[in-house]
Amino acid sequence: MADAHAHAEHGDDYYVHAHITPARTYVLVLATLLFLTFLTVLAYNVHLGDWNLFVAVLIATIKASIVGTWFMHLKYEQRFNLIFFLGSLFFVIIFLGYTVNDTEHRGRQGTLTGVRVDPATGKRAFGSGSVLQAEGEFIRLPPLPGEAGQAGQEGEADRDGEVPEPEAAGAAAEDGAAPTAAGEPAEAGDSEAPTAGEAAAEAGASPTAPAEAGEEASGATEGTEGTEATEGAEATEGE
Amino acid sequence: MTVEAATAVPSDASHEAGDNYLTHERGLKSWLITLDHKRIGILYLASVLLAFLLGGVFAILVRTELMFKGQTLMEADTYNQMFTLHGAIMVFLFIIPSIPAALGNFILPIQLGAKDVAFPRLNLASFYIYMLGTVCLVVAIVVGEVNTGWTLYAPYSIGRNVTGAGSSVLWVTLGVFIAGFSSILTGVNFMATVHKMRAPGMHWKRLPLFIWGLYATAVIQVLATPVLAITLVLLFMEHTLSIGIFDPQLGGDPVLFQHFFWFYSHPAVYIMILPGMAVVNELIATFSHRKIFGYMFIAMSSITLALLSFLVWGHHMFASGMSEYATMVFSALTFLVAIPSGVKVFNWLATLYQGSISFASPMLYALGFIALFTIGGLTGLFLGTISTDIHLHDTYFVVAHFHYVMVGGTVFGFLGGLHYWWPKMVGKMYDEKLAKISWFLVFLGFNVTFFSQFIMGSQGMPRRYYDYLDQFQPLHMTSSGGAYILAVGFLIMAYMFYKSLRSGEKAPPNPWASAGYEWMTTSPPHPHNFEETPVITRGPYDYHLCTEEELWDGFPEDFPGEKAKA
Amino acid sequence: MAHAHHGPDYLAHHFDTPKQQYEAAKIGMWIFLAQEVLFFSGLFVAYFIFRKWYPEAWSVGSHLLNWKMGTLNTAVLLLSSFTAAMAVRAAQIGDQKGVPDKDKRKFGGQAWTGHFLLLTFVFAGAFMVVKYFEYTHKFHVGTLPGQYFGCANFECTGTMSEELVEELRAAIASAHHNAGPDLVPYHLRSFFGLYFVMTGLHGIHVLIGMGLIAWIWNKNRKGEFSAEYNTPVDNVALYWHLVDLVWIYLFPLLYLID
Fold first, then answer.
1. Quick check: helix, strand or coil at residue B541?
2. Nearest CA to CA, how far is B79 from chain C (Å)?
3. Which residues of chain B make contact with A172, given a CB cutoff of 8 A?
4. Which of B86, B239, B467, B470 is the most exposed place for a label (fewest CB within 10 A)?
5. Quick check: A104 contacting C, CB < 8 Å?
């Protein structure tokens, strides 16, 4: 339908003249991409500290540029398309940069405690409540089957208890509390486990019953700076 | 309303003026599956006006409730829902699509001398996506309980418990998400159209400023709206699964929601105002009958505004607990916005200078726009200043400020454009006297309503409150009174347009003696806009290059354009 | 409606030349892709902020994911991108009838377009299958988002499955960021919240992509494309490459955190 005749009739600006990339180039591109994937996995297994993220993003960016340049033909695209697409990344940077400029410089709401913490120092932000933030961050795993009852089961289970989460269910109330304190013993079949589980879970649900929990929970909450002063103390006393 | 009227155009018109887009095909189906950008524009116009009516009803209910202290009309909860719905409907269903999707769809390809937008099917799809979003919002209204305010701030909006907003928030989220995609697709379509569909001879410096404005808007629509979409996805997931991104109880950060939300919604303010400015460019040039002053400056100021709009979102969050560094940066950048805005206003004023001005009704809206937008813009500077914002934040001052920009700006621009292009769209003139009366009432009513809110706000009346102290009684009363005047103005306008559809005089191709390209075709236009693809040999404001017949040909007596000539 | 002598069949009435139509389509697609970039950007912003805030949760969370499956999926998607690019190439070459075999370029023409599209579809399917196994495993164990973290199959019994405890222990042990051998970061729930939203939205894009590829494949089968007109193949491939691009970032950011 569109043959040499039509071309002659309409001149150069009428039909599309796509640039056809040699198949070999594509194979080469694919090989490079697979190699870079291998490299990024390799880099993952080398411990570089904070640089791991940098290296990962760098490799990803190289891969993305390769895909863009050859697979997506950006090399041969109209200039506007290139500018607009890359320009969109500029807006992503604005989005990220400005938001991080806030989140990295402000006192943050301490988890579940209403305490504002300066993330730079980890210290309590000026004018906020009296408890440190670190406590809310961790949940202690139940001990290994062999050593049930040794390690602290209490942990920060109670912190969830402080959060009133009505219907959303068992769900919210238990998710944190249950796995930590109640979880493993029940499964492990240790003799005291069932009670431990129940008690801790209950403690999670109602912080007013720490005595029961205390009986089973031996460990205090050092691992997390045990600033959950009230609970931690009561738990230890109970013991 | 508009659709009916359009199909009701007498058939003899088509015989006289040749085939036009209204008579080309007939029947409801030909409208619902049309790919013609003009018909899609009309479909949008009808739906947008309906949304405006709905939002307006909520506004009147809110103002009526606030007329007297204590309960006047409704419970506090109902009141919360009313202002939420007013905001959500006006913003997402009316203002954002009003000028780009309704007027823009109709006018943009004609001004470009193109047969259609680049992707006609996508265009129709975006209309139906918009309708789907509307349906979701209507469901939310029926389900009830949407009382979050249009901003849907977390953590209130994710509340799964008794104190939080209920599941109807999900419907609003869904509705806005969907409507957002309609906006994105329109933006994609317009950008591609402007780039690739210009008539021969129309290089970028001959692009009408309306198109420059819509182009800048489209850039924002494309780049900002997806962020709203992802925000709403996260909100939706937070609501249903508590994923712990925005919920402080789970270690999330509600201020992050505000960042996400305003990364879209501040640029969205420019999605709303830029098209308004774009219309005013056309009106000022046409009714001054003079080449617009500083064409490139106006064009570039639109683009600059579009880019700046992405840099200043934090000024909505000065009181949110955001870091001081961020606050200062956002505040400083906010002042930059005044520069391109000022460039526009001064260029309009310079265009008026020594022009032969005709005070036809569209021009009145344009002049109203300049005055009200200036007030709205300048009060914006108060709010961009951190120290004054702390005092004025969340008061009626803010409400008055953005109504001066959104109503005084965008709605006036929209109405001006609607009056201006009405003859082109339906092929009929309207009653100029009624138009002027309704303009006066709208202008008066608007100022009475919202100027009193500036005063209330500066005295400390918080926004969104159901009740207030005795001292605010007179001002609230005034404000509500103004709202009624405004409503009467709109009713008269509606009657005026209705009358025009029923019995308006037939419009000539160029009733305003404008040099704009869209007036070079018949009214209403041919299905392909122009019988032959036009070749552009002059700019859209080159009055000095227009021949007498180009401007004045085919005029019956007594048309506004004719008066201007005299 | 159409003019008597307008142009080739594939030229829509409102365009003057195939070139104009092609360039408009491409520009529209690229603008749409920019939109996609910003759509996903919100998730990346949230990701970086939370990673900075909760390094332990992110580190442990990543070790709860199966990096081998992630790597496999990366390879599969890269392959699919390759075949998509080859499909476009085949379509661009087109069936040059009357051209001697030796002058034709290899892997060109309608048949090869079809083959490569089919391959792309298959790889996309393979990606989803791997994803399916990953997801079902997480459902089964209970590495779920937000309030459902620890709730196997979304049923919160108040106890954590043994499997999960073991997985947690192993993950904590191998994570470089951790606060202690048996301390589970609370914010794992946010990590999995983001994990599911990110991979879920990406997965939806993959599914949409599969639909588009099938659609294009069918069009190609009916012989609608030629060396002169193959824009839909081109644009669908562009979309597909973007899906790949997103995954290129998702993979190291989610699976490979030190």
1. coil
2. 33
3. 242
4. B470
5. yes
| Cα gap C169→C173, rounded to integer Å | 6
pLDDT at A220: 35
Strand ranges for chain C from DSSP E:
183-185
Are residues A88 and C92, on separate chains, in Cβ contact within 8 Å?
Answer: no
Q: Does residue C1 lie within any of the structural domains?
A: no
Q: Which pLDDT score is estimated for A223?
A: 36
In angstroms, the CA A179 to CA C156 distance is: 10
Write the CA distances from A47 to C53, C54, C176, integer angstroms.
20, 19, 8
For A122, nearest residue in chain C (alpha carbons): C53
Residue C11 within a domain: no
- Residue C176 belongs to domain spanning: 19-94+105-255
Tokens coding B395: 């008061």
Residue C41 C-alpha, separation from nearest chain B C-alpha, in angstroms: 7
Condensed to tens digits (0 to 9), the pLDDT of residues A79-120 reads 999 999 999 999 999 999 999 988 888 765 544 444 445 555
User: Is C14 among the domain residues?
Assistant: no
Nearest to C193 among B195, B230, B243 (CB): B243
The tokens describing A200, both together, are 């801790």
Does residue A130 belong to any structural domain of this protein? no
- Which residues from A are below 8 Å from B259, CB to CB? 98-99, 102
Residue numbers of B between 36 and 75 with CB closer than 8 Å to A = none
Please give, rounded to a whole number of angstroms, the shortest distance from the CA of C183 to a CA of chain A. 5
Q: Name chain A's partners: 3 or more CB pairs within 8 A.
A: B, C
Residue C75 CA to residue C86 CA, distance in Å, equals 17
**Gap from B223 CA to chain C (nearest CA, Å):** 6
Q: Is the CB of A102 inside 8 Å of chain B's CB atoms?
A: yes
CA distance A126 to A118: 8
pLDDT tens per residue across span C48-76? 999 988 888 899 999 999 999 999 999 99
Contacts of C77 in chain A (CB under 8 A): none
- CB proximity B303 to A under 8 Å: no
Which candidate, C122, C170, C138, places its Cα nearest to that of C69?
A: C138
Average pLDDT of span B406-422 = 96
pLDDT tens per residue, range B436-480: 999 999 999 999 999 999 999 999 999 999 999 999 999 999 999
Answer for the pair C141, C19: CB distance below 8 angstroms, yes or no.
no
Q: Note down the domain range covering B275.
A: 2-9+36-565
Q: Give the DSSP letter of residue B205.
A: G
Non-local CB neighbours of C6 within 8 Å, separated by 6+ positions: C13
- Cβ contacts below 8 Å, chain A against chain C, sum to 272
In a domain, A69, yes or no: yes
- Paired tokens of A17: 């003249």
In order of A46, C201, C250, the CA distances from A61 in angstroms are: 19, 21, 12
Which parts of A104-209 fold into alpha helices (H)?
A: 157-162, 169-177, 184-188, 193-205
* Cβ neighbours around B532 below 10 Å, total: 7
* Residue B270 located in a structural domain: yes
C118-128 as b/e: b if 16+ CB within 10 A: bbbbbbbebbb
Residue of C nearest to A52 (CA): C258
What is the rounded distance in angstroms from the CA atom of residue B506 to the CA atom of residue C206?
Answer: 54
Most confident of the ranges B147-156, B359-368, C89-98 = B359-368
CB contact under 8 A, C146 and B191: no
Give CA–CA dist C106/B517, Å, rounded: 50
Nearest by CB to B326, which of A105, A136, A171?
Answer: A105
User: How many structural domains does chain B have?
Assistant: 1
Identify which of A16, A52, A85 has the shortest CB distance to residue C30.
A85
Provide the domain count of chain A. 2
Q: Flag whether pLDDT at B101 surpasses 90.
A: yes
C185 pairs with which residues across the strands? A138
